[in-house]
Amino acid sequence: MSAGGIAPSVDTARDAARITRRARRRRRSRFMTAITATATALALVPLVSIVAYLLARGGRALTPTFFTHAPAAAGQAGGGIANAIAGTLLLAAMASALGVPLGIGAGLYLAERRGTRRAATVRYLADVLAGVPSVVFGIAAWQLLVRPVGHFSALAGGLALGALAIPLVARATEAVLHLTPSSLTDAALALGFPRWRTALTVVLRGALPGVATAALIAVARVAGETAPLLFTAFGNQYWSLRPDQPIAALPLQVFSYAMSPDDGWRRQAYGGAVVLVALVALLTLAGRVARRRA
Amino acid sequence: MIAPPIAPLATRLATRALAAWYGTRQVLADVSLDVPDRRVTAVIGPSGCGKSTLLRCLNRLHETTPGARATGRVLLDDVDVYARDTDVAALRRRVGMVFQRPTPFPTMSVHDNVAAGLRALGARRGGASAESERVEQALRRAALWDEVKERLDEPASHLAGGQQQRLCIARALAHEPELLLLDEPTASLDPLSAQRVEELVYALRDELAVVVVTHNLQQAARISDRTAFLLDGALVEVGDTRALFTLPSDERTEAFVTGRFG
Asked: Which of B55, B94, B98, B107 has the most A C-beta neighbours within 10 Å, making it the best mutation to test the interface with A?
């Protein structure tokens, strides 16, 4: 078996090469996996340490009174941030009322008119708007809504946050709407549906869970903003839910307490930060649940 | 199911020098095709030859694709659907269309899917009971009623694939179109479901004009009365189905129907 004698040895050599290649590939794969795992762990370090730090410093502030009472007078022990929690919820509601419908509308426009020059312009502007520092929204709201009336107001703060949410909701909505198969749009148009009816009853209706997720996450993101509220909602040491008056908000409360020399207030600042993080986490979680239902 | 010889029939739809583009790419050129009433016309040809585009030009769905345009004339009952004053929504209600993959609206029930086209007409004419009646009628015509009459309120996405496709046919039939366009209606179905759809199409020929695009030559031979062979965006040959398959007059047609390419 002269031919047969050579063939196995060639095969063996080839097999050996293959095995080395495979081993090298496996080594490289393990190495890369390790790198990404390390990167993930490093990325989680700030989140975990922030939450741990906040809990360590502010955990003791989280008493029942903390959630049910407005701040105590300066120098007095006790008091809480109930007014700031309520204020942030009201501001978030106002921001949603402005940002969600406008954002969804803009996202629908972007998705429906994709490929047109005007849509490209709107998309570019939305991206610019999303990148504008949030303090600029505060200045704009101050100029337009605070200065003319002569005093700070919850409404000005809510609208500043809402404006901040518009581009976030718009771009996320557009992304979700792109997932609607074009065959469904075709089917609706072929039935004699006008464009607007197709967009509302087929495209938007089908993507509603995803759009809800986008809206919730955007609102969660703006609810934690401080800068736009500094010269609009301004903050308030007392209970107020009046839209035309300054209103307390968690980020503002944290900001002013953290700056104070009072140990009790500083502790409450950390407590407030814990509540703020929890609130944002809850809203984001609600958004994820909405998506999972889809 | 051999098609009977064709008696002279009224022409339901005719295209004249129809041409279509996606951007600068021309996909149809000079297509002049007559579609007789109450007959099934099959459009065959290799992938990418413009079959679907031709179909999409007939109800002006082609132009909804960004950058797409068409020239020439499409005459439905001798009226040019590309005339400037055409009400496109009204046109599309006179022409039903069913696609390759079933496209029931996933957020709507079985009943609402069939009623969707009726509702697009605006007010529900005759109220809810009249609507239900028309839904039942459409489902019966699509040979689906017996399978779904207990499930009308279920989401349409719960139906099996073949049922979903017949649901789409029912939806297209609900506002009683004069012309039904089927774009490879069985391509995504299992053989049994495909057969049911074929039988359905064969039965519908007594009621309206049907144009069916198919890449399945046997299917074209089984269900159509007339066949048009499209190649590279041009109409090569059109004629009586049996004649076209047995005695094609163009050698390219012969090559295609005998399976030498495509």
From this structure: B107
Residues of B within 8 A of A114 (CB-CB) are 66
Identify how many contiguous H helices and E strands chain A contains and give both numbers: 12, 0
User: Which chain A residue shows the shortest CA-CA distance from B177?
Assistant: A191
Q: Which CATH superfamily is domain A64-293 in?
A: MetI-like (1.10.3720.10)
In 3D space, the residue among B130, B144, B116, B115 whose CA is nearest the CA of residue B203 turns out to be B144
pTM here?
A: 0.79
ipTM of this complex: 0.89
A1-52: pLDDT as tens digits: 444 445 556 678 888 888 888 899 999 999 999 999 999 999 999 989 999 9
Q: Check B92 against A114: CB less than 8 A apart.
A: no
Of residues A134, A133, A102, A106, the one with CA closest to residue A122 = A106
Tokens of B165: 């496709």
Strands B179-183 and B209-213: parallel
Alpha-carbon distance A224 to A155, whole Å? 16
Domain extent at residue B82:
11-257
Element (H, E) at B68: strand B68-76
Is B229 within the bounds of a domain? yes
Question: Which of A184, A194, A197 is opposite residue B103, by nearest beta carbon?
Answer: A184
Residues 6+ apart with CB under 8 A from A12: none
Q: What CATH code is carried by the domain that includes residue B190?
A: 3.40.50.300
